């Protein structure tokens, strides 16, 4: 530890306000860090396909090598040790374990890799949290319709059960899917992410629905067949912005803001934590748009069938990914083509007073996190919440003295602490995105979110801690000191 006493972050954050069993983690995702895209029997994922097609990703970057965590896991482990993490969230590459996505063939090398990762974490007293699928669907499944196909729910369930069986003796925190909102909207509405389809106003609802069905199946399987023996928890990671009306005195903006929250968080949170169905405003607006546009080709927003496991109650905790906030303006009377934005009837704006980090969409609004946490407490039945992602990006020349990112973490942790102590929100953990600089999806390696810098220009892919990493380590260390004294 470099001179912990001098670290501003560790001094400023009121650490006694974090519960003594608070989880301090970082998050990563397989495709963004692993590389080894075709090594040792791994099958391709839709992200391999996407990056290998021209013009999809910034300057043709791919995850073929990325941080090479597949071969450099020992280096990642050193980073984890250096931060003193209590928890580490990683994702499994589904096609590394099951090359064609199904359990007909298991890749033993993939099992061996994740066994080593999990065993090393546990040997170092780091609790693993595993996401079963973070965007990288096996290409073989995509070839059969992927998330558009109703069969995907059963196939995902088999994959999940395989993972529970193989790793569940040691893994007690499971996330089925990462950000169904992002996967559906960016993958099928505007095509920025794999599989890169642009079918506005239609496919995203179908895909989101099948993701919820898949998640529900897996949770019910865990509940029925594994929970008794393994005693773990299963959830789904939901991303959401926090939204406020552009003009708080304008009732149309206020209503539009509620719609924004409904179409972002509520789309997935309502079925799982709320009413068991999509938000009323979604049903209402989509129905009204169908009439207005004369859309008659069936349901755009599907119904949950009576004949299969229900989504309601299928999360043992709330896994929240929060990055940013928006001001919202009513746009409900604007004529529109069939689209998600048209259905929503909102316009989302970045307040000019908010600093923007090195990603065009990421306005820095730490107090939005506190408000969102309170909103989740109030609308989702006061769940246990783990903040499974939150972070700050750099672009351009690398700054190792990343003071702005230090400030960001300081302000954010202050807000989390207030949410716990002043608002009584049951936050049990915080996972910084990300352990390492990595492949930021369609932005390639140009956007850096790591607490460790990765030198992508050299084949060693050397990891070097940023100032923000040192400060995060100091926070964790100080926290542990307190618990030791408390005991
Ligand atoms: C997370 O998604 C991902 O889980 C993680 O893999 C990723 O690296 C991390 O964030 C950082 O981006 O183009 O205006 O539609 C974050 C949520 C929401 C961020 C959509 C990008 C694009 C906004 N994402 N957003 S827009």
Strand content: 5-15%
**CATH architectural grouping:** Alpha-Beta Barrel
Radius of gyration: 21 Å
Mean pLDDT: 95
Bound small molecules, deduplicated: ligand GBH
Task: Give helix % range.
Answer: 40-55%
Given helix and strand content, the structural type is alpha/beta
Helix tally equals 16
Question: Strand count, sense and closure of the main sheet?
Answer: 8 strands, parallel, barrel
Runs with pLDDT <50, length 5+?
Answer: 1-6
Along the chain, the helix and strand elements come as HEHHHEHHEHHEHHEEHHEEHEHEHEEEH
CATH class: Alpha Beta
Task: Work out the number of β strands.
Answer: 13
Shape: globular
Q: Tell me the number of structural domains.
A: 1
Query: Could you give the order of strands across the largest sheet?
Result: 1-2-3-4-5-7-10-11
How far is it from the N-terminal to the C-terminal residue, by CA? 23 Å
- CATH topology description: TIM Barrel
- Superfamily at the CATH H level? Glycosidases
Salient structural properties:
487 residues, alpha/beta, TIM Barrel, eight-stranded parallel barrel, 16 helices, 41% helix, disordered N terminus, binds ligand GBH, glycosylceramidase activity, hydrolase, beta-galactosidase activity, Glyco_hydro_1
Architecture overview:
This is Cytosolic beta-glucosidase. Belongs to the glycosyl hydrolase 1 family. The active site is at 389 (nucleophile). InterPro entries: GH, GH_1_N_CS, Glyco_hydro_1, Glyco_hydro_1_AS. Pfam families: Glyco_hydro_1. There is one protein chain. The chain is of the alpha/beta class and 487 residues long. It has one domain (4-486): TIM Barrel (Alpha-Beta Barrel), CATH 3.20.20.80. Helix content is 41%, strand content 14%. The chain has 16 helices and 13 strands. It has helices at 8-12, 30-33, 46-52, 73-83, 94-97, 108-123, 139-142, 152-167, 180-189, 203-230, 251-273, 280-293, 340-344, 366-379, 403-421, 467-486; strands at 23-27, 87-91, 127-133, 173-178, 233-239, 242-245, 318-321, 325-330, 346-349, 385-389, 427-433, 452-454, 463-465. The strands form 3 sheets. Strands 1-2-3-4-5-7-10-11 form an 8-stranded parallel barrel, surrounded by 6 helices. Strand 12 (452-454) and strand 13 (463-465) form a beta hairpin. Helix 8 (152-167) runs parallel beside helix 10 (203-230), helix 9 (180-189) runs antiparallel to helix 10 and helix 14 (366-379) runs parallel beside helix 15 (403-421). It is globular and about 55 Å long. The model is unreliable at 1-6 (pLDDT under 50). Bound molecules: ligand GBH.
């Amino acid at each position: 530890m470099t001179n912990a006493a001098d670290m501003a972050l560790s001094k400023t954050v009121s650490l006694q306000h974090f519960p003594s069993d608070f989880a301090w983690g970082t998050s990563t995702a397989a495709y963004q860090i692993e590389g080894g895209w075709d090594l040792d029997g791994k099958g391709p994922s839709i992200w391999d396909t996407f990056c290998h097609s021209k013009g999809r990703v910034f300057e043709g970057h791919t995850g073929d090598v990325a941080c090479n965590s597949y071969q450099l896991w020992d280096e990642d482990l050193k980073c984890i040790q250096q931060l003193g993490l209590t928890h580490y969230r990683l994702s499994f590459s589904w096609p590394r374990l099951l090359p064609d996505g199904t359990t007909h063939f298991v890749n033993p090398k993939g099992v061996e890799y994740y066994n080593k990762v999990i065993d090393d974490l546990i040997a170092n007293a780091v609790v693993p949290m595993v996401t079963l699928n973070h965007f990288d669907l096996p290409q073989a499944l995509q070839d059969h319709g992927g998330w558009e196909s109703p069969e995907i729910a059963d196939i995902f369930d088999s994959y999940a059960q395989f993972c529970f069986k193989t790793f569940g003796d040691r893994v007690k925190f499971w996330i089925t899917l990462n950000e169904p909102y992002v996967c559906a909207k960016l993958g099928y509405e505007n095509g920025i992410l794999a599989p890169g389809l642009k079918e506005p106003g239609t496919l995203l609802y179908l895909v989101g629905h099948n993701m919820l069905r898949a998640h529900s199946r897996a949770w019910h399987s865990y509940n029925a067949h594994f929970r008794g023996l393994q005693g773990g928890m299963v959830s789904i990671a939901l991303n959401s912005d926090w939204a406020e009306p552009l003009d708080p005195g304008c009732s149309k903006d206020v209503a539009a803001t509620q719609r924004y929250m409904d179409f972002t968080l509520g789309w997935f949170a309502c079925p799982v934590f709320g009413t068991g169905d999509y938000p009323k405003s979604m049903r209402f607006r989509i129905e009204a748009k169908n009439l207005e546009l004369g859309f008659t080709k069936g349901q755009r927003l599907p119904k949950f069938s009576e004949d299969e496991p229900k989504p309601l109650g299928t999360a043992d905790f709330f896994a929240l990914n929060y990055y940013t906030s928006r001001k919202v303006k009513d746009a409900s009377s604007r004529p529109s083509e069939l689209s998600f934005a048209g259905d929503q009837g909102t316009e989302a704006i970045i307040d000019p007073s908010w600093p923007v980090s090195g990603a065009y969409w990421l306005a820095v609004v730490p107090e939005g996190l506190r408000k969102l946490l309170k909103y989740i407490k109030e609308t989702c039945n006061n769940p246990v919440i783990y903040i499974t992602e939150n972070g700050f990006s750099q672009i351009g020349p690398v700054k190792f003295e990343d003071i702005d990112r230090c400030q960001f973490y300081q302000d954010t942790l202050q807000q989390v602490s207030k949410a716990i102590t002043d608002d009584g929100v049951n936050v049990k953990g915080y996972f910084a995105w990300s352990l390492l600089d990595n492949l930021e999806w369609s932005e390639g390696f140009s956007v850096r979110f790591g607490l460790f810098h990765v030198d992508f220009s050299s084949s060693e892919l050397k990891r070097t801690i940023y100032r923000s990493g040192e400060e995060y380590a100091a926070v964790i260390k100080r926290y542990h000191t307190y618990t030791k004294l408390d005991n």
